[in-house]
Amino acid sequence: VYVFKNSFLFSFINSYSSKIFISWKTSFNDHVDLNILTSESFKCVKRKLLLDKYRTTVCIHEIQKDRDVSGHLVSHGIWEEHLVTHFIRILSTYKQYSFIDIGANLGIYTMYATSLGCSNIISIECFRPNIERIHRSIQLENVQKQVELIPRVLYNKSDVYLSLRANIKNNIGS
């Protein structure tokens, strides 16, 4: 999870673009068109109200397949509450900053950034079931204009095949 001042964001990406390669072997485009309505139906729930002001929607996996993250979200209302709360405190003070969520998982940080009103959010996730859930969450909250969802893997070498396997030790995205 990275937070950047807008003017700094693009110079940072440009200066490191020769060192970061995007490698992905799939039918996905460079980004997900968030204006195309998804027909997927997932369990999507409002998350815990943080700092008495910020709440959002997150779409989850079946708890039997994802006890670690989705299960924790259902039982506790939030995942990594202390980190998300700290993140909200920082970003609510500096709403002009851009936000990059690398390895977004279900998009918890992405979605809380939208609830803060951040207008330049980049969410990067490589696991298709997670991408579909983030896409649906963005639609439910109607924040398509705030988020760029990139279905890619970021890695420091090109042409490297990375394998994802579902349901490793109750964490579907591991």
From TrEMBL:
UniProt-listed Gene3D superfamilies: Vaccinia Virus protein VP39
Record SUPFAM superfamilies: S-adenosyl-L-methionine-dependent methyltransferases
InterPro entries assigned: SAM-dependent_MTase (IPR052514), SAM-dependent_MTases_sf (IPR029063)
Protein name per its UniProtKB record: Methyltransferase FkbM domain-containing protein
Lineage: Eukaryota, Metazoa, Spiralia, Gnathifera, Rotifera
